[in-house]
Each structure stands twice: as structure tokens, then as C-alpha cells.
Amino acid sequence: MLDVAKQAVEAAKVAGADYADARVASEESEALTVRNQEMEGIDRSSSLGVGIRVLVNGYWGFAATARLEAHEIERTARLAVEIARAASRLPSEPVALSEVEPVTATWSSSMQEDPFNVPLEEKVALLMEATRRMQQVKGLTFAESGLDFYRVKTHFASSEGAAISQTSVHSGGGIEGTAIGEGEIQRRSYPNSFRGHIAAAGWEHIQRLGLLEEAERTASEAVQLLNARECPSEVTTLVVDSGQVELQIHESIGHPVELDRVLGMEEAYAGSSFVRPGDRGKLRYASDLVSIIADATLPGGLGSFGFDDEGVPAQRIPIIVDGIFQNFLSSRETAPVIGEKSSGAMRADGWSNLPLIRMTNISIEPREGSLQDIIGDTKDGIFMATNQSWSIDDHRVNFQFGCEIAWRIKDGKLTEMYRNPNYTGITTEFWGSCDAVGGREDWTLWGTPNCGKGQPGQVARVGHGAAPARFRDVRVGVRG
Amino acid sequence: MPGIIGPDEIRRVSQAALELPGVDGVEVMFMHEWGGLTRFASSAIHQSTWSEDTAISVRVVSGGRIGVASSNDFSPEGARRCAESAKEMTQFIAPDPLYPGLAPKQPVPERDRFDEATAGTTPEQRAGGVAALVAQASDGFVAAGAFETSAAEVAVANSEGQFCWAPSTQASLTAVITGGEGGNGFAEVFGGSVADIDSEAVGRRAAVKASASQDPRPLSPGRYTVILEPSAVSTPLGFLAWMGFGGRALLEGRSCFSGKEGQQVAAKSISIYDDATSPLTLGIAFDFEGVPRERTDLVKDGIFVDAVYDMRSAKQAGKQTTGHALPPPNPEGPLPLNLFLEPGDATLEDMIASTERGLLITRFHYSNIVHPVESTITGMTRDGTFWIENGEVAYPVRNLRFTQSIVEALSHVTMIGRETELASEFFFSASRVPALKIDSFNFSSASDH
């Protein structure tokens, strides 16, 4: 398929492109869902096509097709050039790409056991048993379990001479218990919400998740939540688990430091950012305890790769160091605007979309202590776990996030359980109030499988290493 | 530019799946989409794309066991492979006691939703539209947005002999103009034809709003009277579809309307229905099971009537499907995709003039569910939020976060606009809605811009 990508690049050059790259991508996926020991569905899908991106006189064009016959590729390449020429209707500064060494390379994510080779019987049996164990808990309405597997093969060629083939396999699984009572629905998930914990790994990742071992506890907590009190409305100390820190990083650090947002390129849809190009090295984003790394080289991360979708090598970039903002996520087009080279963050959703700046693995650096240590060190406050909902403004300033469950912390111990917990804040104030970040023992490399961005809409799978953390003076329990 | 594949070729390819031996039933859902999107920011075209793809999804039933496989390989071999893969899955699945069978052979009304000019819109034509829009931005302001023209053909074929096919087109233009001293203005237009897109008019609306929204003042959170323009109304209505109007959710007690059939859930002036058959929306004539879509009353004069159903949820409820199946697999069950909120008799000017103190809201941003049973959602205002005082728009205000039950808000509607617009929501398809005046709406916090 690399030959097809090279053929597309040649066709684009013949059509008049000054620069061209092409990605032939094949994707296969498998999703299984069980509910109350009944198979809700097994869904397998596959997709193959080519996306051709060109620069003509400094203007971008992109066209993609599932038809890989030579004449269709040539037609699509001509269309990409036509689109680029049409863009010059509105004059702007011609795009100048930061330099990259064109390489010939292959890369694959690591795994021990290919999940697509695991028999369906084994997958179904695991999910059935998980829901059976959950259904042992009296009062549970729905016991659900699911598995998701993806294999993406990408072949990238550019007119600069790059020729890169990469394969990523992602595996994920999770369970969810739902209890429905009088005017109330409560859910508990494990290991995380929204179909669990997904990683760049094989079947061995699923086997390590402990879905069966945690089934009863997960279901029990869902049922207990029905009779729990509403999370009180107050300003208090907030401790969140690593799964919620994952979401907090994603929404209030990962997106605001995407340089395309900062430069207004996402203004009309997902919005822009409160961070400015001149903030590097100056903006106090968080407390001294908070350091954030973008690391596309991290084994097991959904945002790991050998090269991004512009052929830029994977990198490890400090985003925030001891609370001070340092670097953006950038591309070959945007990095030169701030006098830099690309950070290697351009990724496309399949063959049919052009690459955008996306998060890689955006992680908080672990500090010291376990979750239990942080709770034990808290005199009074609320502990929230497992993300349930999220909302943030178009500059990534004002946010409100909900969790599945909470407990009152009293004198270092978890006491009363609360339902429907949420909290709200202002990004830099909130991160500035962080006075504890957990250590390596409770640091988890989570996967976010549903990050949306761009027009036409694209979905990316990105990674976040997160540890539990504590924040002071947070407003919790927001009600309608 | 590609053209329509057409029913004859789709039948030929589908037949390879429908002939799968040793099973009780096969259903093929086919989709072919193509189109371009010209995206602009800082008054320049920065991302302009075009793509074409086909998708074929095969649902195989054997002894009430169901498997689904899909691919973008639109060929008899591709269809056959999907069918065989789906058949393999049925070996591991327990029979679905609620399996309703496949849609019977039945006529589906033909509707002309395809516009050749829209399907064939060139990049140059879209760029011209964007240029006309950008020209409306005043000095010191820039425009961002997207101009999309697309075409699709959808077909459903099954082993009961049902076959339905519909081509359609859509065009949309959205714009945010920013600049001056913190000014932001939004406007959008949707239609089935590129001829529906008046680029200059969209640009003018966004530009006027951007100019007027400069120097926004802070406003304390609290409960206020609000006037929601149609783009803002589309957010609560879209979430209500998700949280309330699905038949499966209703039956399972997950809907905010579960157990409330026949009860007053909104002001008497509120009527909500779904109607893909209306020329005022963009839907096609059948659902993804091949069942003709029907107008379905959801809330009538403030009373919750019923949800929408697909064949499975209809069987569970002992009712008839309303033609609202989503593409398989669809664990959420049926949803309404072509919502209408019936207009009233007020103008936006009437609403403003009748408001002593309140807020005029252009649209909401990045909303999400807080409490599904209470229909409570949270989200932000953006791109033009204004304080109204003594019947006039007084000044712009900074963006506010709302946390509000939709059902409660609809119970406090006091005026409804007489004009409707097709308006989008971040996550959902476009609804046709008027402006609303609501006399109590909760804002829980504020932002800095």
C-alpha cells in the first residue's frame, strides 16, 4: 500500500502540487457489548482509502477517496490541487512548513497477543461472566460489559521523500452497572467510564484489567448510590482519582495548548484558547507541583506512534514545568509562526480526513504518595471518582465536570457516600490550587477514545498518564 | 465529481449478501457520501477538504441471533465478506427474545431531496461564498467558519424483499466573526440546496452581532429571564431528544419522560414533533430498517405524548414502529433526528420589548448532561450574549454557564417566535425551531470573556 501512497503523491505533483503527501490507511475494528448476560451486539467494521494533501502556492488542498484504482487516485489528486487553488481566492500568508528529515521507516505498537486472533468465544465468555457477577448484586438494573479492538495501518509518502509504514493496535474493555430507582439513575464503571480502559496493547491488556474481580464492587456501588445523599453544594477541598485527573488534563490543558486553537484555526467550532503564543515560559498555569509532558514515545499510550501524520518523529515535549507553561502542541504549518519546529502532533482520523493538531499522550508527572496517602492527609473535603460528564467554554476557561461517585473525607478517612457529584472552576485558578499529586504507584496511563475536533468532525484516541490529585477551595455540588 | 451509484447497482451488490445461505434473514444498509467542506479562519481559507466514501453494513439473523459487520468495500465480494463475518458472530450470541423480524416489503414514498447543483458544487463556488461572507466583516474583525456541500444516497435492502433508496443533498454555512474589543458574532444557515445559502446574509448577521458584542460586561450568575435565539434553542431540544424521546430509554426507565405519558411536562404552548417527511427539514423518507418514517407527536400542548420507536422497541412496547431506527448496531435504540418545535406568534422584537430585565442568547457551547432523569444539562453561552433592560438590548455581557433542567425551562416558556430556523447543535443533527422566551433560567457561574 505504500506504493499507492507514492503513486498519489506523484499524481499530485503532476497535477501541479508544490508539496504533496498521501496516506493510505486501513482500519479494522471489533466491538462487543453484553447486557445482563445477553449479547447486545458484536460489530466488526473495516475501511480502506487514501487521503491526498497538497500545497499549491502556499495554500492547502485535501481530497480523499475509497477508490484506489489508478485513474481514481489521479482524479482525487487533481481535485486536491483544484481545492488548493480555490483557497487562494482569499489571499493570506502562504503556508511555510517547518523542516523535517524525510525518512523511510516502519513502526508498530507493541503487543503480546493479537486481540483479533483471540476466539470470539473467549471474549464473549469474559463479558458474560462479568455481567453475571454484577447481576448477583440485588437492586442492579443493568449489568453491561464491553470490549473494543482497533487495528490501524498507515502508509505515508511525501514529495519530500518520506516513506513510512506504521501499525497500531488498541485494545480496551470495561464494565458498567446501572441502578434505576424513583426518579434516579446511578451508574458505576470500572476501570473507567465510557467503555473502560483502552491502551495501545493486545489481549494481555484485557486480561490485566480485572473486570471479573471488580464486577461485584462496581455493581454494589451503583446500587448504594441510589440511596446516597446528593453531593452538597459548598466550597471545599477536592480530591479526585486518576481517572478524573485524566479528564481534567484533557479538557483544561491538552486542548488549550493546541497551537491551531491558539492561532484561531478552530475558532468557529470547538473554539480557541486563553493561552497566547507569548505565554511560553511566563504563564503560571498551575501550582509548582504540576508538570505536564506530551510524550508520543510512551509505550502503551493511545497517542503513541513512530511518526505523526506529517512524517515528523514522535517526541517528548514539556508542556508545563513546575506550574509554568512551556510549549504548545504544534504542526509543520503552525510551529514556524512561533519560530519553532513541529512538536509532531498532527494526526488524522482515518484516510478520509486531513491531519489536525491532536493530543499525543499528555500526562501529569507523578509526585509522591498514593491516593490513600492524599486522602489520609486531608482533614475535610470531598473525594470524587470516575468521570461522568464534562463541559468547558470556548476559551477553555470555565469548566464544570461531573463524576460518578463521591465520598466525604473526614479526618483522613472516607465517610458518607454522595451521588451526582460535580465541581466547577476556572482553569488556571483550579490548577493553581493543586497541593498534592500522587506518586507512581497510583499513576495510570489512561486512554481517551473519543476526542472530537475539526470540521468535518474527527475522532482521535489519545493518552493521558494521570495520578490522583488534591485541589483547594473548589466549588462542588452545582445544581440546576 | 462522482455521481449517484443508483438503485440498480446497489441491488446488485446487496444481492451478494442477501443470498447468504443457512440463515433466517439478511439486511443490508448502504450509504454513499461525497462532498466538500471549505473551512476558513482569520478571514482566509485554511482547511478545505473533499471526500467520497461508501459504507455497507450487513445484519444477519439466525434463530433470533443477530450479527452485524460493515465495510467500505462496495463490491459483491465486500458485501459477501460482511455477511459471512456477521453470520460467524451469530454462533456466539444468544437469541434476542425481542427480535421483531425484518421490515416487511412495503412502499416508501419518494421524496425529492437531491439537488444536482449542490452535489456538484465546486471548490471555487464554495470559496466564492466564503469570500462574500468574509467581506461582511468590518475593519478590525475576522471571520471563521465552514461552508459545506454534500450529497448522499442511502439504501436498505432485506431478505423480505424490502428495498428502499433515497438520494439527498445538504448545504450549510456557519460563521463566527470576532474582533474589535472582544466582539463575537455567530450566524448559520442549513438547507437541502446550495441555493438556500445566502453567504452575504450570514456574514451580515454575524458581523452585526460581533460589532454589538464588544466590551462585554461581567454579570453575576443567577436566575434570569432569557430569550433564546433558534441556534440556542437547538441545544436543549437536541439533548431532550437524547435524554427523553427514545423508545428504548422510555421503556427502560432511563428517559426523563419514563412514566409520564399523558402528563403535563411543558408549558401549554409547547408542541414538539419529529417529521422527516416535512419539506422544512432534511430527513429522508425511511429509517435504517427500511421502514417509512412518519410524523410523530412527542409533546402536544405541553403534554408528553410518546417517544419514537424502531421495530424492536415497538415490539417491546406493544406498539408499531414509528420509523426511527438508527443504523445497526444501535444500542441506544431509536432517536428522533428531525425535530420540530412548533412556532408561536411573537417576533424577536416582541420578546425583547416585553422583557424588563433579562438576557438575549445567541447560542450555547459544549453542553453536556448533568442529571438525565431531571433533564438537567450544563453549557456555556458564546458568540453574542446581551443584557436586556426595559424592553431594549442594553449592552453585551460576558459568557455565562447555565445548569438547568430542560423540562423545567420548557415549563417556563412565555413567548414563542413565529419564524423557525434549521439550527444545529454541537452534537446533534439540525432541528427546526423558533426563538423562545423563558422567564426563569439558571446560570451557575461565569467566564472571563
Question: How are the SSEs placed, and which strands pair?
Answer:
The complex is a heterodimer of chains A (480) and B (449).
Chain A: H1 2-15, E1 19-35, E2 38-56, E3 59-65, H2 70-87, E4 104-108, H3 120-135, E5 142-158, E6 163-181, E7 184-190, E8 197-199, H4 203-208, H5 215-226, E9 229-230, E10 234-240, H6 242-254, H7 259-262, E11 292-295, E12 316-321, E13 324-325, E14 346-347, E15 356-357, E16 362-364, H8 371-376, E17 380-392, E18 398-410, E19 413-419, E20 422-426, H9 427-432, E21 434-437, E22 444-453, E23 458-466, E24 469-476
Parallel strand pairs in A: 4-6, 9-19, 10-17
Antiparallel strand pairs in A: 1-2, 1-5, 2-3, 5-6, 6-7, 6-8, 10-24, 11-12, 11-16, 12-13, 14-15, 17-18, 18-19, 18-20, 20-24, 21-24, 22-23
Helix pairs in contact in A: 1-2, 3-5
Chain B: H1 7-18, E1 25-41, E2 44-62, E3 65-71, H2 76-90, H3 116-119, H4 123-134, E4 141-158, E5 163-179, E6 183-191, H5 199-212, E7 222-228, H6 230-244, H7 247-251, E8 272-274, E9 296-300, E10 303-304, H8 311-317, E11 339-341, H9 348-353, E12 357-371, E13 376-389, E14 392-396, E15 400-405, H10 406-411, E16 413-423, E17 431-446
Parallel strand pairs in B: 7-12
Antiparallel strand pairs in B: 1-2, 1-4, 2-3, 4-5, 5-6, 7-17, 8-9, 8-11, 9-10, 12-13, 13-14, 13-15, 15-17, 16-17
Helix pairs in contact in B: 1-2, 4-5
